[in-house]
Design a protein that fits this description.
mainly beta, disordered C terminus, seven-stranded antiparallel sheet, disordered N terminus, 5 helices, elongated, cell membrane, 71 strands, MRH domain-containing protein, 994 residues, membrane, signal
């Protein structure tokens, strides 16, 4: 490795006494210095060539320099060669050459060595090479202001073939200083798979000022598990101080995966004064080599080898690039694995040492009495057992892949084994077929990545849905289980258009048999990868070989080159038999009776992957409507609710633009400060999801989000998204860091005043109860993508609360009980208080107040009901003025009318009292004349004593009561008796019948 022996290869004069010596030469004082040296060292032996080496002085202003001899050990010999003029300062040697300082000429490297000429390479990491420094700091303070973590033991650790970063929350910098004579570059190979670690590379000059770099140059992109990436940055001439810096952010109990670094190469140094021997396990067989080759499998080499030596093939073995041969151990059970051989001509497959009947072909394939399965021809289908058949009229093949029998690996799948630290498992099968499932192989060690890959060239929508505006192009579903005793992990990854591979989901530890589905929302070529690792701890022994993952079936729909296991309906040009299929217009379904296209009813949306039958038109949720293509349901920021025979109408348009909330700060167990940042798009425009979150390491406010989203490490556009923010003052970063961006709300479910919708419930104790009479309005969202902790995906609920004291844009908040926005990690709740969350004003929201009548004029005023719980809508009417009369006039009129009524009532009372007396007298006379037993002659008329002349005073010896009189009338004619009453009068006595 270059730069390991002397600082000479750096092109930098580092011996402290050279600069004064050069100054003495230029000052003409070298004779004096030589004389003094001779006096002191007169008894020392004469220097030999092995006692010193040559080095150049710094270039002066004229571009010249001197070659001087530097003793290996000071004061051990005398008679060093005199300084001589050196080569031109721009002089350098080519790759495979070194500058022979005695003759000052470029010379080819010998076999077994190599040289980069004007560059240097670091590819041995048994220890940290000279010139490199690992510096650990902890640049954040805990909640109380004290440092909560000691970083004295944190460092980049050499692991032989690579360096490994720390796994804690310390900030650790790997530093290397180099002086370039011309413009050059630095490149390195790395593995960076965990976004819980921030990995940056930056450059400073000799004044400790950071040089200008773009964000892509400074912040390193994530790599796929088990894969290495390369990063290259241009360097300017002069001093360059290189920094590789990592910072761990432990937001949970999960152990982070470290950054791995190897093969650091720097171009632009002035020269190299020696060639460097090939490291063990490599060789260079010809002179003038610029690199060394790996020794083939079952061979080995020592340091500086020009060829490799074969191992004893009967007793030893060696992987590629070995420095020694290893003894073959005795075989054990762990070295055997169940293998299924391909079907032979008899239709048999060998499972270890037994022969069993072959399983049927996978759906979409047929056997045709041969030992192999063949895809069905276009337009036909098969279940894998029966022969291929044509699809009936009005149907078309449902193309895709459906792998559920694993006798051989499908043609579009491949398997491999990879290890970041060695090449022992290269060439091994990472996965093995096992009849009804495919499972992980044995590998060479427990931390191997066992990789299974499926390539899909693209997706082709069926004719029936080719014109729909749905966002689903296809979906992949697989059924799997993991059986583990250690910290195994299964990764499911996706590479779109051969750009970068991203982890879609991962599962740790043992998992019961379950199904997972991922929906493709972009029509592109894609590579799906399953990677299984038994443990991430490096070890040479195989301790967990029985920890396995099994995949039982893999299904991909709408695959471009797929086969069909069934047929599904499509629309017809006519109802005649044999008619060809036609695509339905957007928002139309296929009628089951006629196979014709019919438009979905209003406020329904069309199911993305099945449009057969009216039931494929799914009703929109409450408070939502469908777009014109019936592809989705959305809220137009309007809402109405009937409450106590009153219709409340809301307009949430002022809340429509994206709102943000950053809650915290929170602290990890080690004291690192971080925030949860949420972007919320309440309505969008006809379903457009306007909230954007990115995984980046620059200031969010300065990031241009108008470009191609594929350029970002992670880009989320949705209704509600979340990012984890590390503040710029938290770990010494100059800008805030955003990471772990996720979508919380892909689909709008509906808006309602109820607390539940589609199995999502808002707990009544999350937020303080409101004293307002206006009900809260809840917006429900869902992100159906399942995660390891949320089997049914994530949910989000935004509660809109009327608060006239808040501005139009309002104030977003989370529950104090769940400061991270969620209590269970799956359902997120937000409270948005705003005046815009109040209903629109109506006539019922104000009342009138009548003023006093002054000068025959009266004012009527209108005021809002208190408290005012409405916004906009109808305006408050202005003051109304009307004529009126004085109140004393009406009092007089009222008093006069009252006096008249009182006199009238008194007069009527007297009149009726007198009238009643007269009637009582007449009644008494009539009763006395009604006695039939008396012998007096009958009266000529019942109306005796009529007239006022007969109004004599009647004397009752025994005055009967009114009740007695009534009884006498009631008994008249019912008996024989009669009663006579004698009346006293001044006139002659008479008898009166009563």
């Amino acid at each position: 490795m270059e730069g390991r022996k002397h600082p000479i290869s750096h092109g930098v004069l580092t011996v402290f006494y050279l600069m004064p010596f050069s100054f003495l030469i230029q000052s003409g004082l070298v004779i004096l210095c030589s004389f003094q040296w001779t006096v002191v060292a007169k008894d020392l032996p004469q220097c030999k060539e092995t006692d010193y080496y040559f080095e150049y002085t710094e270039c002066d202003s004229t571009g010249s320099r001197w070659r001087v001899a530097i003793p290996q050990r000071l004061g051990t010999c005398t008679g060093l060669p005199d300084p001589v003029s050196g080569t031109d300062c721009t002089f350098s040697c080519g790759a495979g050459e070194f500058l022979e300082m005695s003759a000052q000429q470029c010379t080819q490297c010998a076999a077994g060595t190599y040289s980069l000429g004007s560059g240097m390479r670091f590819d041995e990491w048994d220890d940290i090479p000279p010139g490199f420094t690992s510096l650990a700091t902890y640049m954040d303070s805990g909640p109380a202001g004290e440092d909560t973590l000691t970083c004295s033991n944190s460092s980049w650790a050499p692991q032989g073939n690579y360096l490994e970063s720390n796994r804690d929350e310390c900030t650790v910098s790997l530093i290397y200083a180099v002086h370039l004579k011309k413009q050059g570059s630095v490149s390195f190979v790395y593995q960076y798979v965990d976004n819980n670690i921030f990995f940056e590379f930056f450059i400073q000059n000799d004044q400790c000022q950071e040089m200008d770099q773009t964000s892509d140059q400074k912040w390193i992109k994530l790599t796929n598990n088990g894969e290495w990436g390369t990063h290259t940055v241009d360097l300017k001439s002069g001093t360059n101080i290189l920094y590789w810096r990592t910072t761990g952010i432990l937001l949970g109990t999960k152990v982070v995966k470290p950054v791995l670094l190897k093969n650091v190469q720097i171009e632009g140094v002035a020269y190299t004064s020696e060639c460097f021997p090939c490291k063990p396990g490599t060789f260079s067989k010809t002179p003038g080599s610029s690199s060394c080759d790996l020794c083939p499998r079952n061979t080995f080499s020592g340091k500086g080898a020009s060829s490799c030596t074969h191992c004893d093939k009967d007793k030893q073995y060696a992987p590629e690039g070995s420095a020694e041969c290893k003894e073959k151990p005795a075989c054990s059970k762990k070295d055997y694995f169940q293998i299924h051989t391909p079907c032979d001509s008899e239709g048999k497959t060998q499972i270890t040492y037994r022969r069993e009947p072959c399983p049927p072909c996978n759906p979409g394939f047929y056997n045709n009495d041969t030992a192999t399965c063949t895809p069905c021809p276009p337009g036909t289908y098969s279940n894998g057992v029966k022969a291929c058949q044509k699809c009936p009229a009005g149907t078309e093949p449902a193309l895709g892949y459906e792998y559920k029998w694993w006798n051989v690996l499908p043609a579009n799948m491949k398997t491999s084994c990879f290890n970041v630290g060695n090449t022992k498992c290269d060439g091994m099968n990472g996965w093995e077929v096992a009849g009804d499932h495919i499972r992980s192989g044995a590998g060479s060690s427990d931390n191997d990545y066992l990789i299974l890959n499926l390539r899909v060239p693209g997706f082709q929508l069926p004719t029936s849905v080719s014109r729909t505006t749905g966002s689903e192009f296809g979906r992949i579903t697989f059924i799997f289980e993991t059986i583990c005793s250690a910290d195994c992990e299964l990764y499911f990854m996706m590479d779109v258009n051969r750009k970068s591979t991203n982890v879609v989901e991962s599962w740790e530890g043992s998992k019961e048999k379950q199904s997972y589905t991922h929906i493709m929302t972009k029509n592109a070529s894609v590579s799906y990868t399953w990677a299984f690792q038994r443990t991430n701890q490096a070890q040479d022994i195989r301790q967990y070989v029985n920890d396995i993952v099994k995949i039982y079936s893999i299904t991909v729909t709408n695959a471009q080159d797929g086969v069909a296991s069934s047929c599904h309906a499509c629309a017809l040009v006519s109802q005649q038999s044999g008619s060809s299929c036609v695509p339905c217009p957007a928002g139309h379904y296929i009628d089951k009776d006629t196979n014709q296209c019919m438009e979905c009813p209003p406020d329904t949306y069309l199911s993305g992957h099945q449009i057969y039958g009216k039931e494929s038109c799914v009703p929109c949720g409450p408070g939502s409507r469908s777009n014109k293509d019936h592809s989705l349901c959305f809220s137009d920021c309007s809402f109405s609710h009937v409450d106590q025979n009153r219709t409340l109408t809301y307009d949430f348009s002022p809340l429509g633009p994206v709102g943000s909330i950053m809650n915290g700060p929170s602290f990890t167990s080690k004291g690192t400060k971080y925030f949860h940042f949420f972007n919320i798009s309440l309505c969008g425009h006809e379903g457009k999801r306007a909230a954007v979150c990115t995984d980046n390491v620059t200031d969010l406010s300065n990031k241009d989000l108008q470009g191609d989203s594929s350029e970002f490490v992670n880009y989320v556009e949705t209704f509600v998204c979340q990012s984890t923010i590390i503040p710029s003052d938290g770990r010494g970063f100059r800008t805030a860091l955003s990471s772990q961006s996720i979508s919380l709300a892909d689909t709008f479910l509906g808006a309602t005043v109820e607390s539940s919708l589609s199995d999502i419930t808002v707990s009544s104790d999350l937020f303080p109860e409101t004293s307002k009479k206006v009900p809260d309005v809840n917006f429900f969202y869902r992100s159906p993508q399942a995660t390891s902790s949320c089997d049914k995906g994530r949910n989000a609920v935004i509660t809109l609360r009327c608060n006239p004291e808040k501005p139009a844009r309002g104030e977003l908040g989370v529950s104090s009980k769940c400061p991270a926005g969620t209590c269970d990690g799956c359902t997120f709740n937000f409270l948005w208080e705003s005046a815009s969350a109040c209903p629109r004003c109506t006539e019922a929201d104000y009342h009138e107040i009548e003023g006093a009548c002054k000068g025959a004029v009266q004012d009527t005023l209108y005021v809002w009901n208190e408290p005012k719980l409405c916004t906009e809508g109808v305006s408050l009417p202005g003051k109304k003025t009307s004529p009126c009369e004085a109140i004393d006039f009406w009092l007089k009129v009222g008093a006069g009318i009252g006096a008249f009524v009182a006199v009238l009532l008194v007069s009527l009372t007297c009149y009726f009292w007198k009238k009643n007396k007269k009637l009582e007298y007449k009644y008494s006379r009539l009763v006395m004349t009604a006695n039939k037993e008396c012998e007096l002659p009958a009266a000529d008329s019942c109306a005796i004593m009529e007239g006022e002349d007969n109004e004599d005073e009647v004397v009752y010896p025994n005055k009967p009561s009114l009740l007695g009189k009534l009884k006498s009338i009631a008994t008249k004619g019912n008996g024989e008796s009669c009663e006579s009453v004698q009346l006293k009068s001044s006139k002659p006595e008479r008898w009166v019948w009563g």
